[in-house]
Amino acid sequence: MRILLIEDDTTLGAAVRDQIASDGQSVDWVTRLDAAADAMSATSYDLLLLDLMLPDGRGIGFLKGLRTRGDVTPVIILTALDQVSDRIEGLNAGADDYLVKPFDLSELSARIGSVARRYSGNPNPILTHGPLDIDLAARSVHRDGGHVPLTAREWALFEAFLARPGQLLSKAQLEEKLYAFDAEVESNTIEVHVSRLRKKLGSAIIETERGMGYRLGKP
Amino acid sequence: MRILLIEDDTTLGAAVRDQIASDGQSVDWVTRLDAAADAMSATSYDLLLLDLMLPDGRGIGFLKGLRTRGDVTPVIILTALDQVSDRIEGLNAGADDYLVKPFDLSELSARIGSVARRYSGNPNPILTHGPLDIDLAARSVHRDGGHVPLTAREWALFEAFLARPGQLLSKAQLEEKLYAFDAEVESNTIEVHVSRLRKKLGSAIIETERGMGYRLGKP
DNA sequence: GCGAAGCTGACGGCAGCCTGAAGGGGCTCG
DNA sequence: CGAGCCCCTTCAGGCTGCCGTCAGCTTCGC
């Protein structure tokens, strides 16, 4: 999950960033609204953490602008204790939740988890290669709409080819990739796995360079 | 919108009741948990305002009981306890929001409006997955109309799969989700919990990819 | 046409997975 | 404060199916 933190207090910002990172999420941190707008046009975020008092304007206006433009990205507001009216305004402007400073970092995690659960589900990037649709994060391959199950070795081999599309890979290189130094194979293992991959994914997927090695075929 | 106020402080209770009524909502007010249970069996409410310290028990247990039984009615907690741990416990028990006494009555109105909007936009955010109906906010699962109780670990595991449907998750990834880095498990805990989830939810719910991990099966 | 290199079906061993059972720790209730 | 209960972890035995190996066949280069 990608999170954008918009907070000008460097101490708090660093603490929040570290907490989120330790939860395994990806964080970008900006200190100004114009930087936030730039970041959002460059990247799609799953959640915004928005401070209301920033050097170049009030966060409320920023949030209202987002909602007016139809942006539905979840927003959690971070505000100081005495700004009761801001909190009300924030909720009415379209915030999903808010946290009152000073807040406990574990509570932040709980709120992020809650929002994330509510909005779970944005798809992973899909590679296409000829008739194949490949989702690297999900480790899944689809061919003509059907799911093609790959075993661990098969996936490792396929991944090696995908990492260097079109490049020639010798059997020795592939063995290193699959067996990480220590193990010695004394047989035609690579040939066998290439054969199994071709059967599952299509015979054109991997080309043989006789005496040299293999390479990923053109789509 | 029908609101049930559960609050034993008569001064505060009356103030809250009047505020809500002046917002045009319908309120019932009880001062004990057993009275709340009676009222809820007689009437269907759209929102509960729940004090945590009551003459006949702690509101947290009451809330947990509700969620365990599959009740998804939105709950806002009202309490004098401003301990962070209590607030986290409340949110984890299934509360939708939190107000720490003393609070501003206009803020109460804003929160009620927020919860109402959240639930009117999508009245009951229920995921369906094959024969399963899943309410993420209430942490409840129904199968063939019956409630399936999940333990904490089971839910955490299930949630990890739901967050990335169809994606392969390694045991290491799942352990990180369940144990947040600090604790180390030296055994087949994940396997055991997967086994229990399958027994409760159906064996097809989670697929094994030997040597790689698990993924949520197709509905 | 010949040798070398690659392909692929078959198969046994074993790593990896499943699951029932037991023990311990935390929580609730009397 | 003890009893009872539930949940989590650990362990062990059994099972599944992936992987490495081999053999026989095909393809390629010369």
Automatic annotation (TrEMBL), chains A, B:
UniProt modified residues of type 4-aspartylphosphate: 51
Single GO MF descriptor: phosphorelay response regulator activity
Principal localisation: cytoplasm
Gene Ontology cellular-component terms listed: cytosol; protein-DNA complex
Keywords of the record: Cytoplasm, DNA-binding, Phosphoprotein, Transcription, Transcription regulation, Two-component regulatory system
One protein family per Pfam: Trans_reg_C
Superkingdom field: Bacteria
Entry protein name: Two component response regulator
Higher taxonomy: Bacteria, Pseudomonadati, Pseudomonadota, Alphaproteobacteria, Rhodobacterales
